[in-house]
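Hi R.,

Here's the chain you asked about this morning:
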Amino acid sequence: MALVLTFLGKGGTGRTTMAIAAAKQLAAQGKKVLLASQDTSPALALLLGAAVSAEPQEIAPNLQVVQLQSTVLLEQNWEEVKKLEAQYLRSPFFKAVYGQELGILPGMDDALALDAIRRFDGSGNYDVLVFDGSGDQATLRMLGTPEIVSWYARRFRQVFADSDLGKAISPFVQPIAAAVLNVNWTGDIFSQPAANQMTTMLDQGKAVIADPSRVAAYLVTTAAPDAIATAKYLWGSAQQVGLTIGGVLLNQASQSTGLSEFAPLPIHPVPTRSGDDWQMLMQALPDFSQVSQAPRPIRIDVAEGKVYLFLPGFDKKQVKLTQYGPEVTVEAGDQRRNIMLPPELRGRQVTGAKFQDSYLIISL
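And here is the predicted structure, written out as tokens:
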């Protein structure tokens, strides 16, 4: 299993430069590194001084690079969909549609990139995956996909099961499924092999995102006020998807003065790159193995009956707490997080909440 490392910040602050420097630093330490970039323009090859493509290419000892081209990824995934269809359906119909004719819809790029990272991680070929994405809310929504899809699955599963429609059609599910599917289908419609496989995958994805030794991000900013404000906003937003932020890379700087608003994160000044010399940047980067020491996005104290959410960059006026359904919903930074409480606290109503030292403390 690899460490997935990514960088967040305003466009133009040097996220791609930091990703390349980090990949080079980690490879120089003897780790097997894959730099995976969503940038399909020629700019990546120019920065690297090497040819890149949709397949991993080795450009230095221990360092491979891949461009995540959505059209190629979509073709590959479509073939997997067709294999699954043939496995479960008696009369597959997707076989008449070819991956080479499929267009890319909005949102597909990030979903395909996430799946590609999952596959590269599962290959066992790498110690570190450095992901160079958009570095904004789109990246955060991508990394939060397992949590969000998992909520939709469990919430609507229960709503459907309790509905009159669900109760009315349940006796007919088995005979219809037996006529259409290649597998035996009995009992709960949501507890079949395909559904269980998806649930397991989502649970594993959530566990990985929540583990800073497996997925972590660093903020990238310059001394410009708009860049700093964006980095602060993304810091708080990252907590909503359970992503740990390990520190701040202050690009084009020689010292870290004037960034007290990022406490307790460590600030790492990074000098301006000179030509093809990456050595000074590599030396200025932090020890990425220390990211687990950063504040965790969420902590639940069962004994106290409290949930501690770390939401830096926001104040209480920017955070909305509701409990319409069986879970507690927190809205901040254009993100909603539904907190699945442990069994000991499940079913309890919120009795109070306060904002203290960048933490939203929820009492149950």
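One quick note: The first strand starts at residue 3 and ends at 8.

Cheers,
M.
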